[in-house]
Model the fold of this input.
Amino acid sequence: MKPGSARATGTIAARMPWTSRYPELGTGPLPVEPIISPALFEQERTKIFKRVWLNVGRVEEIANPGDYKVKRLDVARTSAILVRRPGGEICAFHNICPHRGNKVIPESGNETFGRARANLLTCRFHGWVFETAGAVRSIPREEAFADLHKACFGLRPIACEVWEGFIFVNLAAEPEQSLTDYLGGFGEHFSGYPYGESTARYKYSAVLNCNWKVSLHAFSEGYHVSTIHSGTSPNLMRFEHKDFRLFGPHSTSAFFVLPIAGLEPSPASALFREVLHRSERHRPRLHEIPPTMNHERRTDFLFEFPVIFPNMLLHLSAGNGYPGMTYFTHHFWPLSVGQTLWEGTNYFRPPESASERIAIAHTTAYHRNGWLEDTSTMEDTHAALSSGVLEEIVLMDEEIMIRNTHHHWDRYMRAA
Ligand code: FES
Ligand SMILES: [Fe+2]
Done:
């Protein structure tokens, strides 16, 4: 019998009720080659990452006119400058000077923040000055250049749009779709939550020795929770993962935790939870989640659990999951076929007292411990898959979001 073939009784529809709703996905195994092939990784750069909308930040990160963020996008071999204009608009440019190609803004790591004084950006190499709309304002010793048409020497623009305060860029010269069209029904499903009120951010990142899809896939399913998270979350050993919905390349689901009698949080966790749940700002506010989510308004709702193609997750819990946390995100940035920059960011409404600040730090540290459990598998998975021993991997029903991501990865990769 071939690995993964059915031994269980019952129809596919009975064993895989979610997957069966989307027959275009099939129920077969997935190939390993997309995870370990250097040639396919090179194709992903142009066929996916230079073609789709990518979330590169939040509007609160560049709240004031002149504020900028430079985000490295190694997969596209560029960096994006995101800058807020005096009128509030956010523009994006490649961080490259049209004079001789230096970086206009020196970068210090994966993300660099600063402010454009007088809404001007100056290249430090020879002092060319650019407006935050991109046009070149002044060129030292301009008269010494031959036939320089200044209008042609502005910063090279990147398409940039904002959805619910999330800043997206598209590196195509002319994006095929608007961001609204790209997100489609997913954008509607997640719209309306006051994301912008959660201005307190706590971010973790790590470079993992695995393909970006190994990391993405591991965070796209709850099948591992009972085993991988038995250390931090023994009370998660009973859970429910349901309400799977696909929106083209994007997908979503809902995650519920079923309490187990006798398993209580530690005294410290209980104390900090009480601190946050007493606060009007930090208590669970299930009524704030969009109406299409958790429509039964179950109080054991942990979070809405989606994948935004190609490399983002956005878990919305409105404070009902991890104490005080309103939502959190994951990003998976490819560095090479076997290396990924993973970023996990927790969002809270800002604390108003020392006790709230400590309680939020506790939630964040608890969540970090869970993420350490998650990331502990990824390098092993990649190393083992790289052996070539397996040609395929198999998925159970509730791993359907991986199946959908792969289905659309394949569609993009086959496109001319
Ligand atoms: S490279 Fe920027 S001013 Fe010369
Ligand atoms: Fe996990």
